[in-house]
Structure to design on (1091 residues):
């Protein structure tokens, strides 16, 4: 089955294109089964599905964090399968941003240093105007010199979003970014992601269990047993909840 | 609780392996030290030649010391022969024999001396043969020129009854006819001949014997012993069973305290090193569990429950490791004893005494150390409010504890004060303080290190170049962000530096200072010894002096004196080795006499080292009260004070004073000074070659290389090697475990776009900083003790030792620092970053 998320603006190369990707984990679990998926630049895609359906695996493979057993993956038109770990890292650093459920900040670095880390690693320095805008956007202007442990969970997650955006990547992947947050923080983070799509033209792929969160996306795909089984455009949370429950019963 | 503790432990295998190793090695070291200590108190020499005597009567072999362990006397005091008749009349006694021993050796046909185990005491009276259990073939010797020969000697020399043999007894050569071969060690003369020879050798004089052996009707030895005790005057001891060996060989029995002294001097260092290693490993293990512990607090565990959990977990690991550790310790003690025996420091006759006590002590001690370290390491996390504990578990505590820092500072200051001891105390004790002061300083540094490094890091952070490479920048950020972890690594490696330098150099400096004294103070070029004959024959000196070109020849011997004195108002007895010299010694030795004259060493006189003279008010002209090696109290006048005490010992006795108070009266060596002409040397060599059993060597060893070092030095170096090996392995395990715990941090870095090369480069830079800081602080901590050592012992501000030591230490520290980060990092990097994700939390 093949799907593609419609871009809000028309561009030539899709941000990500997976074709015929399978992943068999050691031990024989087939976490992805011949998945093809295209995400256009500037799109916001939500990935849903029951636990164990392969959402995280899909994200890892698409982002070059893990190698697929077969199939091809292009990011911004560039093929990444077959690259070695160093090449893939350099590509991730430039083209991909991550937000994880557990914030994933480096504990010994300040918030400012954490946000600019990807640029620094690439040997670049941040454009001060862009940095200021980003920090304002995530609302952490006053907390830049603090260590992650001194911030609340929501603040840490917003810092992680800023870090994901700092290198202006082709795609931001978020794996249950609101899974550990309260309602207010959840809304803040989702709004941030939505704004980055609308105002900055960022492409975002977000894995989530929460139909309300998925409703922020332009399109939602539903996975089961390593396959994409459903696609919903401009999803509403009620519609998504209905389809997920149906999947659970079927 | 234990169940939960073990479950938590399972996820921290590497760190707990480090703990297990530290405990395993620690238990081994403590057990070995304990076995030595116990043997020093309780081991018995097995009865040998006199096993056939049911009861032995001899002079008491110990000097009673108030409020202290009795001092063992190495020289034999004699027993009045008149007691023989009284003892023979006791009911149940079937035979009473006065036993004598004196130097004797049998010369074989080709002019060689037949080897005997103890030539100094190989000659006995025939009646002593009754006390051995061996069979006799032949008839009792009857007359001045007949002898009974021990079967081993007879076999070695290839002789039998009826043969004519040359025997050197009490230094006198004569021809004897072999009347009997006895299945016992030694040579047996007619009793009256034996008495005469013993007197010549300076042993038992007229009317005395070395000891009295009784044979009794079977099974009543103890009753006879009790009766004998009632009968005998005080100052005599009656021995049965296992105690007989100690009486038979007072020299061997007196070596026992050496074990006690050795274990005493080891115990301090062993405890410090083991405590350091165990606490370090537990610190790493518990740091790795901070998050779990904090979560436990969050779900309702009380601080005490958390500490108890940590305690149980550590004790469970310790229990598993202690058992094989104790077993290894028993083996280790055996090896150490072999080393001592091979080095001639311990008589082969003295076995180790092994009971469950040292093992028990090791188990209890390790349990205490482990429990204390575990609770201390978990203290902070356990006491924080639950929420704060969870927050803090993600990073490490920002401010190091004030108490810890000041305790560390105080310890460093105290260690520095202790370290200048060698400036005042120029002897083994003074040199022994150096490693102890070094270790204390290093432990103090370990306590103060987090605060010190944080201050230094903050100060340095402003001076860093603005454009650091990303990996250097990350390395610095990591080190500054994890001061506690870095301080632990730096302090451990600094400990290695301090330990290796202070321990090795104090040993080699003492050796160098001693051999310097000997080199400078020995005027003689040659040394004549007669070990195979049991001592230098008395007439040899005149013969040597008659050789043309010989300027001086003087006999020397060694013994032990006990020196009672008061120290800080407490009566103490020091047991010191003493050289026995006569006035002629001034011709062959230059002890660096600063007052008085060695030529006055006649009658009841002594010469003492400058150190002793100062500290015990023993200047020239003073009278000092001493106890000779056989227990005789004497008052002697000090006739000279000398400087070269490190080479020649703290006390010199006049030959007159020592005469009759040593087991063997013959000199151990003859020092000979010639005019240096080849003719004189040749004539001396010819004289020595002509008489069987003599050996000619250079008066001083040719160099001061380690290979010529005395056994004590090798013993020390062996100890260093074992302890250093233990310390290094413990630290290596600890560091590997510490690096492995950083997987979460490394995972986050990789997910943020750090390439594997960048991770490796970052870790290498961290290791480089750690190695440099560790080496710097280790060297800084060693400077004061080593400078004091050099100034005190060598008169120059640096210690003596092998030149490769420092480079080797530097190389070791650098290698450990790099390998313990490189290898675990590589392993971490081998996994795909997606799998690392599960650790990024
Ligand atoms: N490293 C691995 N080794 C073996 N099997 C794995 C591994 N990672 C995931 N799996 C298996 O692959 C399947 C898909 O896992 P995945 O983590 O992608 O699910 P998910 O949809 O993200 O679930 P959840 O919503 O619970 O996070 C599961 O059956 C899982 O057990
Ligand atoms: Mg998942």
């Amino acid at each position: 089955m093949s799907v593609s998320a419609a871009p809000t603006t028309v561009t030539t190369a899709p941000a990500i294109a997976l074709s015929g990707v399978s992943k068999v984990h050691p031990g024989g679990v087939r976490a992805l089964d011949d998945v093809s998926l295209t995400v256009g630049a500037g799109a916001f895609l939500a990935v849903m599905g029951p636990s164990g359906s392969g959402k995280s695996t899909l994200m890892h493979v698409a982002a070059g964090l893990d190698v697929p057993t077969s199939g091809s993956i292009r990011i911004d038109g560039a093929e990444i399968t077959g690259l070695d770990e160093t090449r893939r890292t350099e590509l991730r650093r430039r083209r991909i941003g991550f937000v994880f459920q557990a914030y994933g900040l480096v504990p010994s670095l300040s918030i400012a240093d954490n946000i600019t880390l990807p640029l620094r690693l690439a040997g670049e320095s941040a454009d001060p105007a862009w940095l200021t805008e980003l920090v304002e956007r995530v609302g952490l202007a006053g907390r830049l010199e603090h260590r992650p442990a001194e911030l609340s969970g929501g603040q840490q997650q917003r810092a992680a979003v800023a870090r994901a955006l700092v290198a202006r990547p082709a795609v931001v992947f978020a794996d249950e970014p609101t899974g550990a947050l309260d309602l207010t923080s959840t809304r803040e983070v989702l709004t941030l992601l939505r704004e980055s799509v609308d105002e900055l033209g960022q492409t975002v792929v977000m894995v989530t269990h929460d139909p309300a969160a998925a409703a922020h996306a332009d399109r939602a795909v539903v996975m089961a047993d390593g396959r994409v089984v459903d696609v919903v455009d401009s999803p509403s949370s009620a519609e998504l909840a209905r389809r997920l429950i149906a999947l659970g019963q079927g | 609780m234990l169940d939960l503790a073990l479950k938590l432990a399972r996820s921290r295998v590497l760190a707990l392996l480090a703990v297990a190793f530290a405990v395993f090695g620690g238990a081994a070291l403590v057990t070995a030290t304990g076995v030595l200590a116990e043997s020093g108190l309780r081991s018995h020499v097995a009865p040998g030649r006199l096993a056939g005597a049911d009861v032995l009567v001899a002079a008491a072999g110990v000097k009673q010391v108030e409020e202290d362990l009795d001092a063992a006397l190495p020289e034999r005091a004699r027993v009045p022969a008149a007691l023989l008749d009284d003892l023979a009349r006791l009911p149940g006694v079937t035979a009473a024999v006065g036993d004598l021993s004196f130097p004797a050796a049998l010369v074989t046909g080709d002019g060689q001396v037949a080897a005997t185990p103890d030539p100094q005491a190989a000659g006995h009276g025939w009646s002593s043969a009754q006390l051995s259990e061996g069979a006799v073939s032949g008839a009792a010797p009857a007359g001045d020129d007949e002898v009974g020969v021990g079967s081993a000697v007879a076999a070695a020399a290839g002789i039998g009854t009826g043969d004519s043999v040359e025997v050197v007894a009490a230094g006198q050569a004569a021809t004897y006819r072999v009347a009997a071969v006895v299945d016992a060690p030694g040579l047996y003369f007619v009793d009256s001949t034996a008495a005469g020879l013993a007197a010549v050798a300076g042993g038992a004089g007229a009317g005395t014997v070395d000891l009295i052996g009784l044979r009794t009707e079977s099974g009543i030895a103890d009753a006879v012993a009790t009766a004998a005790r009632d009968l005998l005057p005080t100052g005599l001891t009656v021995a049965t069973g296992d105690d007989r060996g100690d009486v038979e060989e007072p020299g061997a029995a007196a070596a026992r305290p050496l074990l006690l002294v050795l274990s005493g001097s080891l115990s301090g260092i062993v405890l410090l090193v083991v405590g350091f290693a165990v606490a370090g490993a537990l610190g790493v293990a518990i740091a790795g569990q901070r998050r779990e512990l904090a979560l436990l607090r969050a779900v309702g565990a009380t601080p005490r429950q958390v500490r108890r959990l940590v305690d149980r977990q550590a004790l469970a690991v310790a229990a598993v490791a202690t058992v094989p550790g104790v077993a290894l310790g028993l083996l280790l003690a055996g090896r150490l004893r072999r080393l001592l025996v091979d080095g001639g420091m311990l008589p082969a006759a003295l076995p180790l005494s092994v009971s469950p006590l040292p093992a028990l002590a090791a188990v209890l001690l390790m349990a205490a150390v482990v429990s204390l370290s575990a609770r201390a390491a978990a203290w902070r996390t356990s006491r924080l409010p639950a929420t704060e504990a969870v927050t803090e578990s993600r990073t490490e505590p920002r401010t190091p504890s004030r108490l810890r820092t000041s305790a560390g500072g105080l310890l460093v200051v105290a260690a520095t004060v202790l370290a200048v001891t060698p400036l005042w105390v120029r002897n083994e004790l003074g040199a022994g303080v150096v490693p102890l002061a070094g270790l204390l300083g290093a432990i103090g540094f370990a306590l103060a290190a987090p605060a010190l490094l944080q201050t230094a890091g903050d100060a340095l952070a402003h001076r860093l170049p603005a454009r650091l490479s990303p990996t250097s920048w990350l390395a610095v950020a990591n080190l500054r962000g994890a001061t506690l972890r870095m301080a632990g690594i730096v302090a451990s490696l600094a400990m290695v530096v301090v330990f290796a330098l202070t321990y090795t150099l104090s040993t080699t400096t003492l050796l160098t200072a001693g051999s310097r004294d000997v080199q400078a103070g020995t005027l003689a070029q040659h040394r004549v010894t007669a070990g195979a004959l049991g001592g230098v024959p008395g007439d040899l000196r005149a013969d040597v002096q008659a050789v043309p070109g010989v300027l001086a020849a003087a006999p020397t011997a060694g013994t032990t004196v006990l020196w009672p004195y008061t120290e800080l108002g407490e009566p103490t007895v020091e047991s010191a080795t003493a050289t026995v010299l006569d006035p002629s010694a001034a011709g062959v030795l230059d002890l660096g006499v600063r007052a008085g004259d060695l030529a006055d060493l006649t009658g009841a006189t002594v010469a003492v080292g400058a150190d002793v003279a100062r500290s015990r008010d023993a200047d020239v002209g003073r009278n000092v009260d001493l106890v000779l090696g056989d227990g005789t109290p004497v008052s002697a006048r000090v006739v000279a004070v000398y400087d070269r005490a490190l080479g020649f010992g703290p006390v010199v006795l006049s030959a007159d004073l020592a005469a009759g108070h040593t087991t063997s009266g013959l000199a151990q060596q003859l020092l000979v000074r010639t005019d240096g002409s080849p003719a004189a040397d040749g004539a001396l060599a010819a004289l020595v070659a002509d008489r069987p059993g003599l050996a000619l060597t250079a008066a001083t060893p040719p160099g001061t290389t380690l290979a010529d070092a005395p056994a004590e030095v090798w013993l020390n170096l062996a100890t260093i090697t074992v302890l250093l090996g233990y310390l290094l392995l413990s630290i290596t395990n600890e560091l590997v475990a510490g690096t492995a715990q950083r997987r979460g941090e490394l995972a986050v870095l990789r997910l943020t776009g750090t390439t594997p090369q960048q991770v490796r480069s970052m870790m290498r830079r961290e290791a480089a900083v750690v190695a440099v800081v560790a080496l710097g602080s280790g060297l800084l901590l060693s400077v004061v003790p080593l400078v004091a050592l050099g100034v005190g012992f060598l008169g120059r501000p640096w210690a003596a030792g092998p030149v490769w030591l420092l480079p080797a230490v530097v190389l070791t520290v650098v290698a450990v620092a790099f390998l313990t980060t490189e290898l675990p990092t590589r392993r971490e990097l081998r996994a795909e970053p997606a799998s690392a994700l599960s650790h990024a939390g």
User: Anything to note?
Assistant: The interface with chain A takes residues 391-392, 394-395, 470, 473, 477-478, 480-482, 745, 748-758, 832-835, 837, 840-841 of chain B (CB under 8 Å). Residues A 55-56 surround magnesium ion (ligand 2) (CB under 6 Å).
